Request: fold
Amino acid sequence: MADPTSISCEQLTYSYPGAAPALSGITLEVRAGEYLGVVGPNGGGKSTLVRLLNGLLVADSGRVRVAGFDPATEPFEVRRRAGVLFQNPDNGLVAPFVEDDVAFGLENLGVERVEMRERVREAIRSVGLSGYERREPHTLSGGEKQRVALAGLLAVGPEILLLDEPTAMLDPAGRDEVLARVRELRASRTVLHVTHHLEELFDADRVLVLNGGRLVAAAAPEELFSDADLLRENRLVLPTVSRLASDLGLPFCRTPEELAAAVEKRSRDNSGVEAR
Amino acid sequence: MKIELRDVRHVYSPGTPFAVEALGGVSLTVEPGEVLGVIGGTGSGKSTLVQHLNLLLLPTSGQVLVDGADALSMDRTALRRRVGLVFQSPEQGLFAPTVEEDVAFAPRRLGLDEDEVRERVRETLGLLDAGHLAGRSPFALSGGERRRVAIAGVLAMGPEVLVLDEPTASLDPTARGDLIGLVVRLNASGVTVVFVSHDLDEVAEVADRVCVLEGGAVRAIGTPADVFYAGTSPAPATVRVAAAVGERLPGLGRPVRYGETLAALRGVMGGTG
Reply:
């Protein structure tokens, strides 16, 4: 990729009709290959940002470039380079069979048949659903449906993935399935991942905090997650394991095993002190 | 109000090639005054199950009893007033020009006089911390605000049992915490709550009992500690932490709620923690 900047926004502002600005003065740059988390309260502007990036909404003022194109004037150029995965897996699936659904985006691009079949097969494989080609989407679990929707995006070959709370409606198993695919895909793409679950962003390069339509912070995850004031001001809640560690005065922990080890160590330190 | 399901089966599209058995003989009781958490993966039958509690769905076979009497012979409208059901993404049902009008819709249809309707709307929006939204359009609200307005629409009918199907999906963590607080307050005021969720951490926080559904059958039902420490279903983060600590240190017990877990961990750490 010649251009090292994947997404850029300058002073981006948008208001829904008759409402206060949903986004105001957003300036940011996303490097090609970066894994960027976006968090913040409901109404903070996260979904509005995604919609401006893919041209579903047009900014009132400011400048947006996605893979070098302006989504307002060249939405189709943007959409073949930046795929959006939305929250509700039922909304996106339209065709009678999985393979038709995955092919849908490609058909709209006028890709010729043989190539299309190959790309669809590869996309279905890359989300771990080989063998599902002739399944009917409505018979799939939520996690499987989201992976079909993801395959539909991948078939088009985007260099950018915009994930708008892709796990919000899934059960824990479905969530793990989708997150595992995201972890694989980020190796070769720019990923912008909107979520309410901070634990999904432990390995993000940066996390943006949007609140009240403003960009209030952009920080590495460990920096953000250990800033209690910043979290509270932005209605963010640490994952349970990290919160227990923090409330116990232990170092930052991601998993139950890490926390158990820290608890054991503190327990031994304390009994050592008492023995003396 | 006590609701009992006895050997309830539900088959969608029975007698056709598309027939699917969603519930295969479920028996359980919703005890008056409790918070019953219902968990299970996608397709386990959770939503089908809860729609039998107010007979939005009728059992293919089996019985639904309300305070010991056959619910099938009761007036459905009266039953649905007593058992309020809030669906997944309830905000899709919002339609009126203002929040106030939307919440007033159901109580008005109950035939209450206008003063009583207004009073209930005010009270319900207040309970949900949404009084300031009364004059706004439902479509100009954030996701969390819309969810609260939709729940207010059901609460305004004054149900004895409130069934919440995935009420916190896609809410931000603080809005989720507020909703959990609301469930606790409603329950304290005497409302029985059936709480369906994918989020085990929040079920752990509110439920008096937990029912695990799998493949349309009850896999386990009991206190949160009994169910989550049995190791047969996925467990909330607190229980996973306690289990991991229990392998290293004795004397932790079986904490489930966050506060209990924090106290138990402080206990085994000793010192000043």
